[in-house]
Amino acid sequence: MLVDIDKSLKLLLKQEDTDDDKKITIEDAGPKYFELESTTGEKLAIEGTYHLSNLLQELILAKDVGAETMNIPISKIEEPPVVRISRMIREYYWDGLTRRMDAGGIEALLADTKNESIEGSVLKVYVPNNDTLALAYYGELQKKLAIEVVQLPEKVTPEYVRSINDDSGILSLKLSKKSGEIKGEPFVVPGGRFNEMYGWDSYFEAIGLLLDERTDLAKAMANNFQYEVNYYGKILNANRSYYLTRTQPPFYSSLIAEVFEKTNDTVWLASQLETAIKEYETVWMVRGKRMTENGLNRYLAEGIGKPPEAEAGHFTAVFAPFAKAANMDISTYEMAYSEGKIENELLNEYFIHDRSVRESGHDTSYRLEGICAHLNVVELNAFLYKYETDFARLILENFKGSIEINGKNYTAIYWKEQASARKKKVNALLWNEERGLYFDYNFRKKQQTNFISATVFTPLWANLCSQEQAEKIVRNAIPLLKEKGGIASCNRESRGEISIDRPQKQWDYPNGWAPHQMMIWKGLKNYGFENEMYELVYRWLYMITKNAVDYNGTIPEKYDVVSATHKVFAEYGNVGTEFQYITKEGFGWMNASFQYGLSLLDPVLVDNLNALVPPDELFMTKNEFG
User: Fold this and answer.
1) Cβ–Cβ under 8 Å, residues 512 and 487
2) Cα–Cα 20 to 30 A to 148, which of 233, 262, 385, 494?
3) DSSP one-letter string for 572-589
4) Within a domain: 291
5) Nearest Cα to 571, choosing from 394, 366, 415, 413?
C-alpha cells in the first residue's frame, strides 16, 4: 500500500513518541497500536514497539532518499529482529561509519565536535615531515576548505606533542593517486564522537567487514596501519595529534592474515609483513621501553602530563589532595600542572600509568590504574605471541619458509623460536597453577596481581596455552565472569566497592565489551569448547537484540552485562545511544560482534534468538556452569 511519508511520520510520532525523543521505545506511553493509512484510504494495523519502530525507520529511510510516498514494505516491518539487525549493519551501518582523509572526508570532519580550536572552525591537519604527496595535496586543499596544514617536525617529541595538545588536530592517513586523482584510503570509525581511525577497534571492525564481504575496507585499514607505522612510528591510538606518543593493542598480524585469506595477494602480504615486523621490533621489542628486563612486554605510552582527551573533571579526585596541600582550588592547580608551571613527581608517575592504561585500550579500569606501566599484562603477551606464530605460519606457507627484509633474512623457524621463548616466560610468570588462571605480573614487585579480568581468556584466543590450561581457565573463570548478557570485564570482587572517591570505571564490572567477547568465542572454539561458546555468544546477541527491539534499533558502544542493558552508568557515557528516528551507524565493534557471533551460532539457536527466548531458559544457571 502507498503511503504519504510526511503525513504518516507526523501521525506516528504524535501518537507513539510520547517522550518526544524522535524514537519509539518501550518507555513511550503510546497505545503501541497504529493504523497506517494509504493514500487511497486503506488502513493497515501495526502493533508493538518493535514493529512501530521498524515503521518509523523505514519511513525515514525513504524520506532520506527524497521520496514523498512509499509502498510500505510489510516484510521489513515484520522482519525477524536478528535478520533485521544483521541486514542493517551490512547494508547501512558500515557505509555510515566509513571515512576518508581526502577533500570529502575532511568536510565531514569540520563538523566534528572535537574540532573546537581557538580559531573557530579551522581544522588543523598534521602531516608527516617527509610525506610530500600529502603536503602538496593538503596544501591545495587549505585554499578551499577551513583547514590549516601543519608539517610535523622530523623528530616528534613528547614536548612537541604537549605543545599542540589543545589543538585537537587530525593526522593524515594514506593517500593514493589513481588515474590522476588523489583519494584517501578509506577506514571505518567506531561512531558518534569517535570520528577517527582507532587502533584495535579497526581490527575488530574488520572481522565484521570480512564476514560482510567488505574486504576492500578491511584491506584499506591495513594499508592505513602501514602508513602509520612508516610515518608515525607506530599504529596510533587514533589519528589525532594528541595520540602521537601512544599506540594501541597489537592486532596488525591478525588483520593482514585475515585479509590475505580473502585476497591471496602475496605481493601485498610481503609488503605488509615487512611493516608488521618493523612495528614488532621497533615498538614492542625495545628493551627498557615496552619490553621489560624479564623478556615480556608492557604498555608504556610516552607523553607529558594528563591525557588531553579526558572529559572535564575526570581527574578531579586525583588533583584534589595536591590542590588542597598547595592551598589552591582544583581547577587552578590542574591548569598550572598541565602548563608545566607546577612540578609534581607523584602526578607525573600517576599519568605515566594513566596514559599507558589508555594505550592498553582498557581506559579505564582498576586492574591497571596506578600500576599499568609496571605490569606484564596477560593480553599483551598473548597478542605478541600471536604475532610471532602468525609470522611463522605466513612465511612458511607463502614464502617457502623465509623472507628477506632490508637485507635481513627472517625464517619461520626463527619466529617459532621467538614464540616458544615467550610461551615459557608467560607460563613461568603469569600462569598460576594453584588457581588455574593467568594473572598480570607486576615486575617491580615480582609478583602476580590478584585481579580477575576477561583478559584471562586471551591465551586461548592466541593458541598460547595447553589444552589442560584451557580446561582449567574455562572451569575456573567462566563461573566468575559469566553474567546475563555475556562475560563481564572483571568480577565484582576484583573491581571493589564504588564510592564518590572511587568512581565506576567503564572497563570494569558490570560492563561488557565486544572485543573481549569476540576473543573469548574464538578462544573457546580453538580449544573445542563449543557448548560454552554457543552459550556466551547467545547471551551477548540476545542482549543486543532485545535492546535493539525495545529501543528503536539502538546498538551502542558497551553494555551492562549484569542487567543486560545499554543503560550504562560510567565515565564517558555510552556512544551510539543518541540519535533521532534511526541509527545510521550502530557502533563499529558492536556491529562486528553481532555479525561474528551470528556466524558462530547453531541455526536452532538463531531461531530462538529471533523469538527472543531468554538465555536462562536455554542454558544452565551461572552456578551450574561447567
Assistant:
1) yes
2) 233
3) T--TT---SSS-SS--HH
4) no
5) 366
Which DSSP category does 425 fall into?
H
User: How is residue 128 written as a grid cell?
Assistant: 608527516
Cite the beta strand spans of 205-351 per DSSP E: none
Give the active site residue among 28, 205, 363, 532. Answer: 363
Chain centroid offset of residue 194 CA: 10
pTM over 0.85: yes
Domain boundary among the residues 284, 300, 335 is at: 284
Show the cell assigned to 278.
618493523
309 is known as an active-site residue: no
User: For the CA atoms of 329, 335, 337, 338, what is the dihedral angle to 10 degrees?
Assistant: 160
pLDDT given at position 168: 77
**Do residues 562 and 500 touch, judged by C-beta distance below 8 A?**
no
* Dist CA 209 CA 94 (whole Å): 8
CB-based contacts of 42: which residues, under 8 Å, 6+ apart? 1
Crossing angle of helices 5-16/49-64, nearest 10°?
A: 150
d(CA 530, CA 401): 33
8 Å CB contact between 63 and 9: yes
Same domain, yes or no: 142 and 29: no
Classify residue 498: in a domain, yes or no: yes
CA gap 279, 268 in Å, rounded: 17
- 557 is an active site residue: yes
Give the residue among 370, 338, 342 at the shortest CA–CA distance from 356.
370
Give the pLDDT confidence score for residue 513 in this predicted structure. 98
Backbone angles phi, psi at 51, to 5 degrees: -65, -35
Same domain, yes or no: 201 and 170: no
Please give the residue range of the domain that contains residue 214.
196-284
Active-site residue identified among 131, 532, 535, 557: 557
Alpha helices in 430-511, H assignment, sequence order: 458-461, 467-481, 492-495
The two beta strands, 181-184 and 175-178, are antiparallel
Distance separating alpha carbons of residues 425 and 417, to the nearest angstrom: 13
Residue 504 lies in a domain: yes
How many domains does one find in the chain?
4
Q: In terms of domains, do 261 and 179 share one?
A: no
Query: CA neighbours within 13 Å on the CB side: how many for 105?
Result: 27
For residues 598 and 538, give the distance between their C-alpha atoms in angstroms, rounded to a whole number.
9
pLDDT at 119: 46
Q: Does residue 440 sit within a domain?
A: no
173 and 204 part of one domain: no
Bridge partners of 376, per DSSP, are 441
Name the residue type at position 446. Answer: K
Name the residue among 572, 559, 121, 109 with its Cα closest to residue 307: 572
Flag residues of the chain having pLDDT under 70.
Answer: 111-121, 620-626
